[in-house]
Structure formats: structure tokens, C-alpha cells
Amino acid sequence: MIKDTSKLGPALLWGGITFALYWLLFRNAGSFQVLAHTTLDACVVGTDYYNKATPELCAAQGGTFIDGVWWYVFAPIAMAFALSYTHGNFTSLFWDVVGLKAKK
Fold this sequence. Notes:
- It is a single chain.
- This protein has four helices and three strands, in the order ααββαβα.
- It starts with 7 loop residues before the first helix and ends in a 6-residue tail after the last helix.
- Helix content is 58%, strand content 11%.
- The chain has helices spanning 8-27, 29-37, 55-60, 74-98, and strands at residues 42-45, 48-51, 64-66.
């Protein structure tokens, strides 16, 4: 089944890194959601987030006003790029190990 054993080690390494990144993403999914919701100013009422709120409107609804931080948007983007890169390397090496090549 294994056609190219020289690429087995790197394939397992990139597979492990990809697994770790996916685990990190799913383990911290709630934190990534909070980052996404608080990129802009937000009002939290219970478990719901409302954007484009003012402190006065938020207080009237009994919520908590959170000042947005624009650079929070980079966390999910960085994770997407990291997963794309590591998963692509793993997949390429995996198919090399198995011996499947595209027709030319």
C-alpha cells in the first residue's frame, strides 16, 4: 500500500500538526465566536450579541456594552490560513505516500 516511504515521516508530521490545529479550533470555538462578535462594538443581552449598539440602547435592554477591537478579525483569518497550509501539505504528502499521481 505504501509506495514512497521517504515521505511517510513528513506526512505524519503535517498530519499531526493539522490534527492539533483542528483540535485547537474546536476546543476554542466559543472564544473564536466571541472574537467574531466583538470585532465591532457589541451589546450582550443574555447569550445574544447585537452589533452597532450604543451604550445607552444596550443599558435600556439590560445588556452589557463591549467596545469592539478591530484586530480581533485576524484570529479566525490566521487560523484559516494555518489550517489551509498544513492540511494542503499533509494531503499532498499523503497521496505521494499512497502512490496516486495526477495524469499528465
